[in-house]
């Protein structure tokens, strides 16, 4: 029987990273839940065994149900009638399968009906679901909204809503509007307080809302009359049971067709405030978006895996000139680079996820007791690392997903252009990953400050201090040379004190930092599991050399005259 977890040993490699012991220790609070819940682990080994067993269940569902339904869902898609959305039959079957398996509250605490998993195994589940069907991941993965509700809602709200999510109800985050896409501070959906009924009322339109006819919505709305910026926005919870919101239409999209992207009309819809007024964008949406971006990084890795699997299977099967095309250098060069990009993306994803797990667990503990000075330092360190690595994981991972989907079709040749092969769907699904939850350009905006403050360079130096296998030392030395060029390019831009130069070179500098970091992570992986990662470490380091040299030449050679030609 097929199983996406068992056939991807890289996942188990990352699940058993040394930092997981500390993550589980913090998440389980000395395993106190064992006295209340019979499925709670009683020690670290039991917790890891639980993650393994659940990931195997998810891997089986992905292979036998979600992946099998993917093509049908892509062709049929959801439909909208009388203001309501009906999922494709395959989507309904997928939701039924994950709900019956108890997988709709993976990361939520047990007291609300969840499994209390850290983000590492949760992102592994997202990785596998995305490989099976990227569109379905958008429905299942919106459990991230429950994390926001858990983090910022009050206990009454948590008790009323989170158990419903764990039982199989769905969520959406209603942020964007026709005139407010990336610029969320321009949101104008109006929230007014209804004194007579003691509730808030929402009026206006939301657009591009993933799973917009969900059961429970987190809605960004303007609560402060007369304001026009982010300080006038608050976060609200809307329950579909209360009515007042209709789906005007489902967008006709290029890809991820199983995931209904909706335009919503709010007409005096009853809602309740989540958290404090005026912090909707400034605090809550920023936290929500960071979680969503990590989810898209996992989705990107899953799509990359799907593209690579389709490409290598076709290359082994397709024969030309008397032999399988995988034997031609022009083909196996592409496949090797696809695998290297996939492995590099996955390594960065789980490094980032470990950072997120560490700081979030400590944040949660801080709600119960005062952190020790050592814990506060730990929380501060991992929070900064998570903030700096998330835009890299999302931005670079999604770009690699698009590149791998492109190369997958190239390997298929003319057949890849036909709907007879899954690579055509994968190619369309991949395209959105570098756009939604913040485009690659916005990830650069988020990441560039960690270039100019030296945060990325400091982390690279920390990786340089790590031991690697003797056979990999030459790669480490080559990366050290590239790091010197990266540092020189950063100094060149920062010393110039020219904002236009800074902005034009930002993506080049962020890519240089990200590629070097990914290469170091692959060296660490190859040291622990050489059979799994050694080839990718060599191939990716060679790729990084070319990319860093190219970006270095661009940054060091650009002139004021060149800049003038970029202006429009």
Automatic annotation (TrEMBL):
Domain Acyl-CoA dehydrogenase/oxidase N-terminal: 93-169
The family this protein is said to belong to: Belongs to the acyl-CoA dehydrogenase family.
Cofactors demanded by this protein: FAD
Entries under Pfam families matching the protein: Acyl-CoA_dh_1, Acyl-CoA_dh_M, Acyl-CoA_dh_N, AcylCoA_dehyd_C
Protein name, as recorded: Acyl-CoA dehydrogenase family protein
Domain Acyl-CoA dehydrogenase C-terminal: 452-563
PANTHER family per record: ACYL-COA DEHYDROGENASE, BROAD-SPECIFICITY LINEAR ACYL-COA DEHYDROGENASE FADE5
Molecular function (Gene Ontology), one example: acyl-CoA dehydrogenase activity
Superkingdom of the organism of origin: Bacteria
SUPFAM superfamilies named in the record: Acyl-CoA dehydrogenase C-terminal domain-like, Acyl-CoA dehydrogenase NM domain-like, PG0775 C-terminal domain-like
Family matches, as InterPro entries: Acyl-CoA_dehydrogenase_C, Acyl-CoA_dehydrogenase_C_sf, Acyl-CoA_DH_CS, Acyl-CoA_Oxase/DH_mid-dom, Acyl-CoA_Oxase/DH_mid-dom_sf, AcylCo_DH-like_C, AcylCo_DH/oxidase_C, AcylCoA_DH/ox_N
Boundaries of every Acyl-CoA dehydrogenase/oxidase C-terminal domain copy: 283-444
Statement: the UniProt record of this protein carries the keyword Transmembrane: no
Keywords assigned: FAD, Flavoprotein, Oxidoreductase
């Amino acid at each position: 029987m097929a199983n996406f977890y068992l056939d991807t040993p890289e996942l188990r490699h990352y699940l058993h990273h040394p930092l997981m012991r500390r993550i589980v220790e913090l998440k389980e609070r000395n395993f106190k839940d064992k006295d209340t819940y019979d499925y709670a682990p009683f020690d670290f080994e039991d917790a890891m065994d639980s993650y393994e067993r659940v990931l195997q269940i998810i891997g089986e569902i992905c292979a036998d149900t979600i992946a099998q339904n993917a093509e049908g869902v892509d062709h049929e898609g959801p439909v909208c009638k009388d203001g309501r959305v009906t999922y494709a039959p395959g989507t309904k079957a997928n939701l039924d399968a994950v709900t019956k398996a108890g997988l709709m509250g993976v990361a939520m605490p047990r007291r609300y009906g969840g499994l209390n998993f850290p983000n590492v195994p949760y992102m592994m589940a997202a990785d596998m679901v995305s490989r099976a069907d990227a569109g379905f991941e958008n429905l299942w993965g919106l459990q991230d909204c429950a994390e926001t509700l858990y983090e910022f809602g009050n206990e009454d709200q948590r008790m009323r809503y989170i158990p419903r999510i764990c039982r199989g109800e769905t969520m959406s985050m209603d942020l964007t509007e026709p005139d407010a896409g990336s610029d969320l501070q321009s949101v104008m959906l109006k929230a007014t307080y209804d004194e007579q009924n003691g509730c808030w009322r929402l009026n206006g339109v939301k657009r591009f809302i993933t799973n917009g006819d969900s059961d429970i919505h987190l809605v960004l709305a303007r609560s402060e009359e007369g304001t026009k910026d982010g300080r006038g926005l608050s976060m609200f919870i809307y329950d579909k049971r209360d009515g007042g919101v209709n789906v005007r239409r489902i967008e006709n999209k290029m890809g991820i067709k199983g995931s209904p992207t909706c335009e919503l009309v709010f007409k005096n819809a009853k809602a309740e405030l989540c958290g404090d007024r005026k912090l909707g964008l400034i605090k809550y949406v920023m936290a929500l978006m960071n979680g969503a971006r990590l989810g898209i990084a996992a989705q990107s890795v899953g799509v990359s895996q799907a593209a690579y699997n389709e490409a290598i299977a076709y290359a082994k099967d397709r024969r030309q000139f008397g032999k399988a095309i995988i034997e031609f250098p022009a083909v196996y060069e592409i496949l090797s680079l696809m695998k290297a990009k996939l492995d590099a993306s996955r390594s960065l994803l789980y490094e980032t996820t470990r950072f997120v797990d560490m700081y979030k667990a400590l944040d949660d503990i801080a709600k119960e007791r005062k952190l020790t000075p050592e814990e506060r330092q730990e929380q501060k360190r991992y929070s900064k690392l998570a903030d700096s690595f998330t835009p890299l994981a999302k931005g670079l991972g999604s770009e690699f997903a698009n590149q791998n989907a492109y190369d997958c079709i190239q390997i298929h040749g003319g057949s890849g252009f036909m709907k007879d092969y899954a690579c055509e769907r994968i190619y369309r699904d991949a395209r959105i990953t570098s756009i939604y939850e913040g485009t690659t350009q916005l990830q650069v905006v988020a990441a560039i400050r960690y270039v100019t403050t030296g945060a990325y360079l400091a982390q690279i130096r920390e990786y340089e201090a790590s031991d690697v296998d003797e056979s990999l030392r030459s790669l480490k030395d080559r990366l050290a040379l590239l790091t010197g060029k990266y540092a020189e390019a950063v100094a060149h831009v920062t010393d110039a004190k020219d904002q236009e130069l800074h902005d034009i070179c930002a993506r080049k500098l962020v890519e240089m930092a990200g590629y070097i970091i990914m290469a170091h992570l692959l060296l660490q992986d190859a040291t622990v599991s050489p059979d799994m990662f050694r080839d990718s470490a060599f191939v990716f380091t060679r790729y990084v050399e070319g990319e860093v040299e190219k970006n270095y030449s661009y940054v060091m050679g650009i002139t004021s005259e060149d800049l003038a030609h970029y202006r429009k």
